[in-house]
């Protein structure tokens, strides 16, 4: 299977592609590519390119664009997910990797009453996201925001979005799949997932007061990262062939 290579938009000038040192080293030493070989390149902003290699050396590589496409591998459903920061960095990183593979559009790490982590290693998470983008053959890097507060996110969503708080207990919860399937075509979706200790009653009430709908992901109690991955998968599986949805990047 053809591997994909990531080149930031700055490395693509007209039909000329310049690979960064890491990608060049991978092309030269690991894949043993040579001039005139063809590779697939993505730029993380929806650009996909078939590229003929012109120069492949240990210290650098460059090529020429032969074919361009847009949004290769990208979902039609716009899915934003806000997740409480987790005590385990590994578990949060696993969630981020799987959410990117599944097609998430935006990831909003949030602090809540029961979170203990307020800072994330965003540089490390970006590398994980780029690797997942290449592996899953997507072309548009999801937005990962800095850590936001629960209050900011709960009150800061656009009116046209379907806002779903995944909650593992209590009355008045809808089926997650029903909410996704029955939404108006093209309506973007925002999901809220709590940290290991879950949401407090007042957080649940605040979400409901701000128009969020409570939803069950089934009768079993899931770990936060499992619930987050299941929710993104649920959107992708149930969102149908609606026309592409757009949710402006979260500015809250
Ligand atoms: N409060 C529980 C579990 C929290 S799990 C405990 O004490 O262990 C963390 C988050 O995952 C929850 O806040 C919720 O958003 C989500 N979650 C876990 N299981 C779920 C389920 N069956 N339905 C909906 N959401 C769930």
Question: Mind explaining what this structure looks like?
Answer:
By secondary structure, this protein is an alpha/beta fold. The chain is built from seven helices and 14 strands. The strands form two sheets. Strands 7, 8, 9, 10, 11, 12, 13 and 14 form an eight-stranded parallel beta sheet that branches. The protein has a six-stranded mixed beta sheet with strand order 1-4-5-6-3-2. A hairpin with a 2-residue loop joins strand 2 and strand 3. Helix 2 runs parallel beside helix 3. The longest helix is centred in the middle third of the chain and has 15 residues. The protein is elongated and about 65 Å long. The model has no long low-confidence stretch (mean pLDDT 94). The protein binds S-adenosyl-L-homocysteine.
What is the structural class? alpha/beta
Low-pLDDT sequence parts: none
What ligands can be seen in this structure? S-adenosyl-L-homocysteine
Shape: elongated
Question: What is the string of helix and strand elements?
Answer: EEEHEEEEHEHEEHEEHEHEH
Number of helices: 7
**Backbone CA Rg:** 20 Å
Biggest beta sheet attributes: 8 strands, parallel
The helicity comes to 25-40%
Strand content: 25-35%
Distance between the amino and carboxyl termini: 40 Å
Mean pLDDT: 94
The total count of strands amounts to 14
């Amino acid at each position: 299977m053809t591997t994909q290579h990531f080149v930031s938009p700055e490395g693509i000038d007209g039909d000329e592609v310049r690979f960064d040192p890491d990608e060049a080293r991978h092309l030269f030493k690991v894949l043993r590519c040579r001039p005139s070989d063809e590779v697939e390149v993505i730029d993380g902003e929806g650009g996909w390119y078939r590229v003929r290699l012109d120069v492949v050396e240990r210290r650098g590589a460059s090529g020429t664009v032969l074919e361009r496409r847009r949004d290769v591998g990208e979902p039609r459903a716009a899915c934003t997910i806000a997740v409480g920061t987790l005590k385990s960095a590994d578990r949060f990183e696993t969630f981020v990797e799987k959410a990117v593979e599944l097609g998430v559009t935006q990831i909003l790490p949030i602090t809540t009453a029961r979170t203990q982590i307020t800072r994330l290693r965003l540089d490390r998470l970006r590398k994980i996201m780029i690797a997942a983008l290449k592996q899953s053959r997507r072309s548009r890097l999801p937005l990962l925001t800095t850590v936001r507060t629960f209050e900011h996110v709960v009150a800061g969503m656009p009116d046209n979005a379907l806002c779903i708080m995944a909650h593992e207990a209590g009355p008045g919860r809808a089926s997650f799949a029903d909410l996704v399937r029955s939404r108006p075509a093209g309506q973007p979706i925002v999901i809220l997932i709590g940290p290991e200790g879950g949401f407090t009653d007042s957080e649940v009430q605040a979400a409901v007061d701000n128009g969020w709908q409570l939803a069950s992901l089934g009768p079993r109690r899931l770990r936060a990262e499992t619930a987050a991955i299941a929710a993104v998968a649920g959107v992708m599986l149930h969102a149908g062939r609606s026309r592409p949805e757009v949710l402006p990047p979260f500015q809250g």
